[in-house]
Design goal:
It contains 9 helices and 12 strands. It is α/β, with parallel strands linked by helices and 295 residues long. Helices cover 37% and strands 21% of the residues. Helix 7 runs antiparallel to helix 9. A hairpin with a 2-residue loop joins strand 8 and strand 9. The chain is globular and about 85 Å long. The structure holds zinc ion. The site of zinc ion (ZN) has 4 residues, from loops.
Amino acid sequence: MSRPAIRRLRLAVAPVALSVVALVFVGRWLNATKVGGQQPAEPFRIAGNFYYVGASDVAAFLITGPEGHVVLDGGYPTTASLVMASIAKLGFNIKDVKVLVNSEPHADHAGGLTVLQQASGAELWASDASADVLASGGDDPDGILPIRALIWLGVIGRYPSPRVDHRFKDGETIRVGPVALTAHITAGHTRGCTSWSFPVSDGDRVLNVVSVCDTGVLANSQYVEQTADRERSIRVLRSLPADIWVTNHARAWGRYRKFVASATAKNPVDPFIDAEGYRAFIDAAETELRQGRTH
Ligand SMILES: [Zn+2]
């Protein structure tokens, strides 16, 4: 190649290289500062020892017990401080959180787990498939390559990897004293997507709670067994008795509407009792599957 040709090539390559570098740095900065559009939300008791401690949309739950508490999901890396403020506002100590569990390992639900783990010293339990993604800080092998490349570069979806202390199998129950959460692998959104069921005592009632892992599928995260997994997940969810149901995005289960209704209800728990809403949510997930819709 002649000298002028090399010079031309350099001139052509330099802006591309510069924009890649700029993209990475701007992306990292955005990633570090963003809360995913999350606003603080008032924490509240849903029923008995079961509380909402999440942000305006990305959910986090606290299940308290005499031998230690459990926190389900951590939001984005920067949402964790909102979760901790909510736990404190309810009068609980983050140091009494002994176990962390997760719905699925994307950054909007797992990103804050490391901060919560460092503040509490809690042990993190995860399904096998989720454990690998958590340990890698958000790199899901089922994601399409361009997305994974952006994750590797730290532009999107990357979070400080938490320490996975225990792995569980489908149907296992995680216990902290009398608190007992049963894991149901409801794969589809991700391979290790975990829904949780547990009883909550409220007054003289025992209410069955189901926390559903996201049922939607992302266009940029698909795998061969996905449709079969979703079919199975819908069957599993239908088989779980649910008086109270929630999912990892608060808008999907009507957090705010139920919270507002609870303030004026005769029994503040009643607005959260919603077996019908649970069935409607699963029906909608099934319709989405039949129509092949992705997000
Ligand atoms: Zn997700």
